[in-house]
Amino acid sequence: MFRLQGSKVLAVDMTGDAVKAKNGSMVAYDGQMAFKKLSGGGEGLRGMVTRRLTGEQMTVMEVRGQGTCWFADRASEINLVSLRGDTLHVESSNLLATDAGLRTGTTFTGLRGASQGNGLFTTTVEGHGQAAILSDGPAVVLRVSPQYPLTVDPGAYIAHQGSVRQSFQSGVTFRTLLGEGGGEAFQIRFEGDGLVYVQPSERNTIAGEV
């Protein structure tokens, strides 16, 4: 159902089924399509409450019909992820599209800095199907194993899946070592067995500090 045309355009072939995608990301389509705007960040009452608490505004559209839709977002690289009953945790800004049958929501992942007590939330995608995630530059998929935990700069983190425990460590980050940090620095540590997706460009919105 999902296929890439180049590295920056997602093509979705539909035969009466549907796909959920970031609002405004469709660049072309053929055939007969119907469009519906959805609210993101979760489904049902729990999703509404979570969005209110986190302030996460993720606007999603549902596309249903017969034909092919093409999606892209600001020339970002697109990466396909297959889910087989497991859960993908992904930054909401990095989620481009999912099979309509996949469930989405938000989950609390920890505290960003002990002194401020700010909470970190990520978007979850679970079920059986495919998801497309965005990255600034080609994403790198890193393996986490019990023998080899992984530490990631939060500005480069995109997503993770598998039996992975996520924790936050205050202190020195890669950016702070170079004298570029100005706030309370932290790193993300992953332990367990799974995959972590990182991008070769750091977001300025997080930048490894509060």
TrEMBL record:
Signal peptide: none
Pfam families per record: AIM24
Segments passing through the bilayer: none
Name assigned to this protein: AIM24 family protein
SUPFAM superfamilies xrefs: TRAP-like
InterPro entries: AIM24, AIM24_sf, Trp_RNA-bd_attenuator-like_dom
